[in-house]
Amino acid sequence: MTPADSAARKQVNDPAPTFRSAPHNIEAEQALLGAILVNNEAFYRVSDFLESRHFFEPINQKIYELSRDLIRAGKIATPVTLKTFLDANVDIGGITVSQYLARLAAEATTIINAEDYGRTIYDLAVRRQLIIVGEEMVNVAFDAPVDFSPRDQIEEAERRLYELAETGRYDGGFQRFARALTTAVDMAARAYQRDGKLSGLATGLDDLDRIMGGLQQSDLLILAGRPGMGKTALATNIAYNVARAWHGEVRPDGHTITANGGIVGFFSLEMSAEQLATRIIAEQTGIPSNQIRRGGISEADFERIKDHSIELQGLPFYVDETGGLSIAQLAARARRLKRQRGLDLLVIDYLQLLQGSTRRSSENRVQEITEITTKLKALAKELNVPILALSQLSRQVESRDDKRPQLSDLRESGSIEQDADVVMFVYREEYYHMMRKPLESNREKFAEWLAEGDKVDGKAELIIGKQRHGPTGSVELQFDAAVTKFSSLAKAERLPAQIG
Fold this sequence. Notes:
The chain is α/β, with parallel strands linked by helices.
């Protein structure tokens, strides 16, 4: 058999290629339009999520658009009022526009079914958009520009998919207040069952938890301070405490939910993951991190590090050390972590190292920070987790006698202060006290300096400058600089009574 005969036989035996049309349901579109034309109240059943672009048939898109405009203008949308705005010469499957409108009204569904038909039309439109996204992914993968990496394409595809998922949803709108009350009671019940009786995630710092009720879901929290104050150390302490307290419960459907503590995602834009791990090991073992780095440890110290490392390996603590991330890339990675592993707390170290997602924003730093904080707040609501973002303070703090930070000290402060639910400042008088050290030859001043040092040694202050859900004020903390560990300050009234 010749190759030509073989090819001919293959062509005869193989079925003809089938061409699939995009998902659509013309009957549902016609039934909904008919219901609107018969009773304009049907439009309000679908108007908050259904748009003309969701219809597959162009004439149906036009009819829905005209009906919408008439109804919102306070007029009546009927076959009679609509036909004056449509081209009478258009042929629709062998019938005129007037005949088509009359048929829609005659075969209308009831207003009761309007929302169900609207959801069907919307869902099919989403499927068509998914096909477009998929086709574009394939085409770009085949013909990708030289400077467009596969990772960039993945993040762009994720962004488009989440954008598609979040726009035009039909599960929003008004709800009965009774439903909101039920949600509030459920939150109170979870708080009662959780360690510390808190509504939010416990930070492990008792005084802070007492004034804030823990880290609240969907909140954007800003932790700011000058270099050397311990912003990263405090954020790392909180993240570790949340991850260490994590406990999950398995639902009947096999899905694991967080019962206590939380799964933590940590974007370390400045420090490497290894540096972060060294800090946590130092904090837990009490061995200074500089000794760990240079190998100045004993065999007993090494055994202690090894034992704690084994414990730390099982923590739900995930670190991304990629530098120079854009806010869009960060959001895509946070969504991916939430989907694949779960997520209860997101930490970003630090805000000013993020980049805006548009060229225009990068030309203006204030505009870029505005975009970043706005999108971080939106991401916190979308993922329903607290986001703790670290921020730098401007140098104007150093020019004041009282160096305690204020809201106005935030760099590009307008948008940060506006978008944040909570703004906290780390302040350590001990840091500035060390800078004021006088010469030992001046005994009087040196003695005063030593006496003052005893008051501030190992102490830190966490100033809450803004809190939407509660009071502002300050919390005193203990800080061990050698192991970069913050802890609750032992106060006299909490110490056990002394005998004798």
